[in-house]
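Q: What would this chain look like folded?
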Amino acid sequence: MLKNRRNKIIFHVTALFCIVGNFAYAQYPKVREKIINLPTFDDRFLHYGYYVGVNSYDFKFLYEESYYEVKFKDIEVQSTTGFNVGLIGDLRVNKYINIRIEPGLYYSKRDLIFHKHPLFTDESDRFREVKSTYIHLPLMVKFSAARINNFRPFVLAGISSDFNLSSNHKNIDDNFSNVFRTEPHNFNYEIGLGFDFYLFYFKFSPSIRGIFSMQNEVIPDSVSDPADSPWTGGITKMVSRGFAINFTFE
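A: My prediction, written as structure tokens:
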């Protein structure tokens, strides 16, 4: 249910961005504003800013071929809305391309729901909470269209590195003690789109982006045979998938 709700939110936000973009594109030959805000803002070689926003993370699982013979169903993931905050350093390459560093703090929480297993002695064994506090370090390339008076659409692409302060990777306990462990560091690729609005004193830029981990994040439980764990046994790969909506002030 929550996954469907999140997908609907992504769809509606993306549709809103597309509608605004199409409207702006249609105005290219028509719009004539008397006042141009911050006319030389994009000529700066280097400038700074900050952002705040929200995020929602999911997990994608890959399993061994024998997994469904024992457990039958995929692990369910229920996501909650997290928050992001960070800084921006922007380097101008030319009129249409900028390189950006956007270090920030991302907080998220995911609940894992496992299906019944003979080793589960209590209903609570089926549920694990995975909290993540990421030091998020993206290196992005921003491709901007031509400015439409006080409006400019753009797309983003790049890579990022995450350091998870809540990974529990050093914890000697595991799922048998109600502790789900993940790797403390991973790499991602990111893509997104947004719009620059040139206001009187600053530039305001809402954007949406997808974040896709490229590394396995699960740490198997400490049992003689990792496949015997009812929580991590049979998982060959677990990677994060998320999206973030950022509101940038520059």
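The chain has two helices and ten strands.
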